[in-house]
Design a protein that fits this description.
Blueprint (H helix, E strand, L loop, with lengths): L37 H18 L11 H23 L4 H30 L2 H15 L3 H8 L16 H23 L4 H23 L1 H6 L5 H13 L7 H21 L12 H13 L7 H4 L1 H8 L1 H16 L7 H29 L5 H24 L9 H6 L2 H16 L9 E7 L1 H13 L5 E7 L21 H16 L1 H5 L2 E5 L10 H18 L12 E5 L10 H8 L4 H11 L3 H16 L2 E3 L1 H5 L24 H14 L6
Parallel strand pairs: 1-2, 1-3, 3-4, 4-5
Helix pairs in contact: 1-2, 1-13, 1-14, 2-6, 2-9, 2-11, 3-4, 3-14, 3-15, 3-16, 4-5, 4-16, 5-6, 7-9, 9-11, 10-11, 14-15, 18-19, 19-27, 22-25
Length: 674
């Protein structure tokens, strides 16, 4: 599902975007200190608000993550301008450059990390604190983008459980700082004047080309890795050589600003977490930001950027970016969904917190502590990093400090063990390329939720009468069955296109599909992918019919005897089982916890149930609502009567849960598979 950033996905997994560059907003005076451009701060304000509103789920901001591109363009412009001018004046030094970056970036970052660590220790479950400890270490090492890439997509649901997911972009920018200054200084000192912008343009083109190729095999890598973001920095860097050729005519200036803002708005409004990104799609917001920078001094449209509100938000944009995502994650950790009032309250709280950080943390270190030498400041930063790293490493290595919940509770609710036990059971019991007995053949088709159902069936069916197998098939790929391509009204990235074509081909060639007596579909349906259910049912029946015609002498079901079952989406309980563990630690009774769980259930699954039920009826299939299996009108069984966890994450069943829910399915639908 699409968190992502904490992609990640998002957050899916574009669930946190980019740390705005705090580069030169206040500079004025000599050429080595470029003049202050208020329109740059206005552009930052647009970018950070787009990210904030996207993370809070406001309508019209499904592509708000393009703020990442805007910030990278701004950073490329300001960093390159500063270095070029100082090299020309003979005032550039690497020690001065990095000392200045550290003063601007580290104080607010360290405060965010300290506050987040304190909140994480009080609120997060052991599994989530373990992940937090690992992410904090990687933030300090400036490689959190790599860490989050190894975990999952930026836009998945789990992104909402990662308070530091948004720091991936700060790591990308810090990696940019390691390479760009040295490269640029060498070019400026040892090459013709035309060569630096030409090579920057070439680097951007190569970044775009290889990023587009990489996207086909690894979308998360294309999103997180710094080399594929070079094109965005290059957009800004090239402007340094173009600003001397700004259009003089006022109408042209106005048109450029309006056009640039329009391109940014296009990305914010029309892009979604399913958009193939960044690569070619990122060109729109990048070009938009570049046009705004090039003509931001326009008399009328430029006021949208230079007004006091926009400039004020732009000045605090770095702190606002840093603090808003932890506020969202920690406030929402024990809530299923945010109300509109809560969303606006979080916007207000984030702005207030950011203003305080800017006034009392950013400004003193940037202006008021000039007497502190770079060496002394570097030593303090190193000590703070070490002080933070030691407990973070311990939490990461020690399973997220389960002792916070009590020794007995930690032993009984080892989420990693529960998850691995479920996966191991699936692997050991429903693997294989074909059925190998004369028992009734039950094939469960789908994603990780198919594993839950296959476990439930194996544990509750008579093994002498039924054989259960599993076939992997993502629900997004159902949409490719009819034409071999995604429907024109659905945007599916290039990675899914290639993968889905392979999955459809594998499904058509599957011996298990051809010989099954019963096919059960269980996936993480959405309202859109539920539309593909009819196609996959028809394909399955066609494959079964063709198989029976090819094997006329084989006893088995006739064409119309193939039974198809659609399992609705599993009810989603955001931030489970952390909520359950917290209540158990407080001594809450099982009955009360299950009653409260009904309020934690997300609403989306109920709407999808209705669509699937209609499809099943029209296709002559059976429909089973997992929501009705897990929940009644007033309660949801997240704990058994004996206090055992039924889910090891927000939607997947433990083995105890699979057994209980399997028994409920058999009781409610005794002839479901016969």
């Amino acid at each position: 599902m699409s968190d992502k950033r904490a992609a990640g996905p998002r957050v899916s997994d574009r669930e946190a975007s980019v740390a705005p560059a705090r580069l030169g907003s206040e500079l004025s005076g000599a050429r080595s200190e470029p003049r202050y451009l208020p329109d740059i701060d206005g552009l930052r304000a647009i970018a950070v608000l787009a990210v904030l509103f996207f993370h809070l789920g406001f309508a019209g901001f499904t592509g708000g993550y393009v703020g990442v591109d805007i910030f990278f363009v701004v950073s490329g412009f300001l960093i390159t301008r500063l270095i070029r001018d100082q090299v020309a004046d003979g005032t550039f030094s690497f020690s001065g450059f990095y000392a200045r970056r550290a003063r601007r970036l580290f104080p607010a970052l360290f405060l965010t990390l300290v506050v987040s660590f304190a909140a994480a220790g009080m609120l997060l479950s052991p599994a989530h604190l373990e992940q937090f400890g690992g992410s904090l270490l990687h933030v300090i090492l400036s490689v959190s983008n790599v860490y989050f890439w190894t975990e999952s997509g930026y836009f998945d649901t789990a992104a909402r459980l990662k308070p530091l997911l948004h720091t991936w972009s700060l790591s990308v920018e810090e990696q940019f700082y390691l390479v760009w200054p040295l490269t640029l200084v060498l070019l400026l000192k040892r090459s013709p004047r035309w060569l630096p912008p030409a090579l920057i343009a070439a680097a951007g083109a190569l970044s775009l080309f290889f990023g587009s190729r990489w996207l086909l095999a690894d979308p998360s890598g294309a999103f997180y890795f710094a080399p594929f973001r070079v094109v965005e920095f290059a957009f800004g860097a090239i402007l340094v050589w173009l600003v001397a050729h700004k259009p003089k005519h006022p109408v042209v200036q106005e048109a450029l600003v309006v056009g640039g803002l329009g391109l940014i708005a296009y990305g914010v409004v029309t892009f979604t977490p399913e958009t193939s990104y960044p690569t070619l799609a990122a060109l729109a917001p990048c070009l938009g930001a570049a046009l705004v920078i090039q003509a931001g001094s326009a008399r009328y449209s430029g006021r949208l950027l230079r007004n006091p509100v926009a400039v004020g938000i732009g000045l605090i944009s770095y702190s606002l970016y840093l603090i808003h995502w932890p506020i969202i994650v920690f406030y929402g950790y024990y809530k299923s969904e945010l109300t509109d009032f809560e969303r606006f309250a979080i916007v207000g709280a984030s702005l207030v917190a950011a203003a305080g950080m800017y006034r009392f943390v950013e400004q003193p270190f940037r202006r008021g502590l000039r007497s502190v030498t770079p060496a002394a400041f570097g030593f303090v930063c190193a000590m703070l990093a070490l002080i933070l790293s030691l407990p973070a490493a311990n939490a990461w290595a020690k399973g997220g400090w389960p002792w916070r919940f009590g020794a007995a509770l930690a032993a009984d609710y080892d989420l990693d063990l529960l998850r691995m036990s479920s996966l191991r059971f699936t692997t050991e019991n429903v693997g294989g390329l074909s059925f190998d007995s004369q028992r009734r053949k039950v094939l469960v088709v789908g994603d990780s939720h198919a594993g839950d159902i296959s476990n439930a069936l194996v544990m509750t069916l008579d093994p002498a009468a039924y054989e259960v197998k599993l076939q992997t098939f993502d629900d997004v790929c159902f949409l490719f069955i009819a034409t071999g391509e995604a429907p024109p009204d659905m945007e599916v990235n290039a990675f899914y296109t290639a993968r889905c074509k392979d999955e459809v081909a594998s499904y058509r060639a599957s011996l298990k599909v051809a010989s099954a007596d019963v096919v059960v579909f269980s996936v993480s349906w959405t309202q859109k992918t539920a539309e593909g259910a009819r196609d996959v049912i028809e394909l399955t029946r066609q494959l079964s019919r063709e198989s029976r015609l090819a094997m006329k002498g084989l006893d088995g079901p006739r064409e119309n005897d193939l039974r198809v079952v659609l399992m609705g989406p599993a009810p989603l309980f955001l931030n489970l089982p952390a909520k359950v563990l917290r209540l158990i630690g407080k001594g809450s009774a099982v009955e009360k916890i299950n009653l409260r769980a009904n309020a934690w259930r997300a609403k989306e699954g109920r709407e999808v149930d209705a669509a699937l039920a209609t499809t099943a009826a029209a296709a002559g299939a059976r429909f089973v609502s997992k929501g009705d299996v897990v929940c009644s009108e007033s309660t949801c069984t997240v704990l058994s009567e004996s206090g055992k966890l039924m889910l090891f994450d927000p939607s997947h069943w433990t083995l105890d849960g699979a057994r209980l829910f399997g028994e409920r399915i058999r009781e409610a639908y005794p002839d479901l598979l016969d």
